[in-house]
Amino acid sequence: MKQKTKEKKPVSLGSLKKLLPFILPYRLRLLAAFGCMLAASVSGVLPPWLLKNVVDDVLIQKNSLMLNGLAVAIVLLFVLKNLAGYGQQYLMVWVGQRALMDLRVALYGKIQSLSLTYLHKRRVGELLSRITGDVATVQGLVSTTIVDLVVQTLTFFGMAGFLIYLNWKLTLFALLVIPVAFKVIHFASQRLRAVGHAIQQELASLSAIAYEALSAIRIVRSFATEEQELERFRRQGEANVRALVHGTQIQATLQGVVEVILIVALALLLWVGGREVIAGSMTPGELIAFLGYLGFMVQPLRVISRIVGSLQQCLASADRIFEILEVPETLPLPERPVFLNPVRGEVAFEDVWFAYEPGRWILKGVSLLIRPGERIAVVGSTGAGKTTLADLVPRFYDPQLGVVKIDGVDVRQLDLKTLRKQIGIVQQDPVLLKGTMAYNIAYGFEEATPKAIREAAEKAGIADFIESLPQGYETEVGERGVTMSGGQRQRIAIARAIVRDPRILILDEATSSLDTAVEHQIQQAMKLAMKGRTSIVIAHRLSTILESDRILVIDAGRIVEAGTHESLLAAQGLYARLYGLQFRESAKP
Q1: pLDDT tens track for 521-532
Q2: Residue-number span of the structural domain to which 457 is assigned
Q3: Do the domain assignments include residue 29?
Q4: Same-domain check for residues 162 and 186
Q5: Pairing mode of beta strands 375-379, 534-538
Q6: What is the CATH number of the domain that holds 387?
């Protein structure tokens, strides 16, 4: 059965239109850059025409005054060309860098605002490649590709115009001869590219044989196959030599053929043009200028053909960028957001249904009221929906059915930033950012004073450790906090969660990865942090939640039990079985 190959998505020029809003704010510099491009194109077209005057007016007419003027004109022309080239390059790079910085910021901001559902389905490396690699490729489009395309196109058509003006009959003859020569050149380049691939393949095979033998040297020696491996290497080396020699033969042959064809084309044009000069319908200078323009036209054609491939790559990168920028918002913001100030901390779930993928419900009809200041623990087996339940409170996701309310207001109607500032979250594996201890504790809460940072650190039980360091709160924590122990990172995370004095605290299996001794110390810090706050504790170890006001047991997306530790044990239900299982596991030597 044939496997269907994935069709390549065609690249459209629509992405160029989408780039315009990022480029147009810099339109004045862009217009100046296009003016420089025009000047560069004109100065690139004029030299063969000056050559015509040198031949006809200076060498034939012996006009010394014209000689002086042409000498000055040539100098001024190339000064203009280089000034225009500097201007177009500087201005387009400036516009390109500014526009693409705006595009990169917009893309980064968009990724920051996308739903966690979308982000979890994408690899981080792929998203980063869009911010860095794809944007850099598009920057090349704005700064270089467009410049080359405009300048070389104007130059090409300017030269073509001069050719027609000089001798339209000879131009038509050139249009018949030159395409044949370019067809042969194209064929030759394809053949050389194929030969080059073959040479690289043979060389890669030679390297692979050597790598395999050296990687498995113990096996080779164990089975005494050194001579066999040497013979394999020799045979592959001979194949590589044959490919290289064959490539050299083809390259030398094709280069000779191409050169002969180009010379034949030039000789034919020279013959036809020479007859025109002899007949008096064309001056020697015009013939020299005509041949000069033909020679100079090779460069614009070569650059334009290269730009076509580069343009496709740039547009493909632009398509990848706008694919992200055009992702619809999955968490629509309210037109008239409600600001709760202050937040009391009442959390309500009203018949909440939630699924990451259609039809695969994670939460099924959850109804729950958490009173202000109440400490709630959520337990259950892996995949039961514990973390999902907690994630709906700060509105990381929206339920498909039902409502989540804070102080009686649907979270979808609340100002999102204000809501999240009132919620402190401590995760199982907290990530610290590169920066100081103080920076990490106050992260996201710019108003935090040194006193508030110290008080949060004291409540989290990390103040003594920080103050023992040579630079105290100004000590750098290192990349992702790798220089700190798990318990220390967890305490910094607790301090970060409570420094803003949130009314709601979510602790998502905050001690499950720690050993028993450290867990006990973190528990004391968590008790201080939860005091006076509505707290939702997701627990894997049931020993950490014995003093909770209420324990909720979730199974397959539903709350199946609720009560205190003692009442749930007495009920002999799922909680009692989970507790008994953990107790037996912890009692094992």
Answers
A1: 667 777 777 888
A2: 430-501
A3: yes
A4: no
A5: parallel
A6: 3.40.50.300
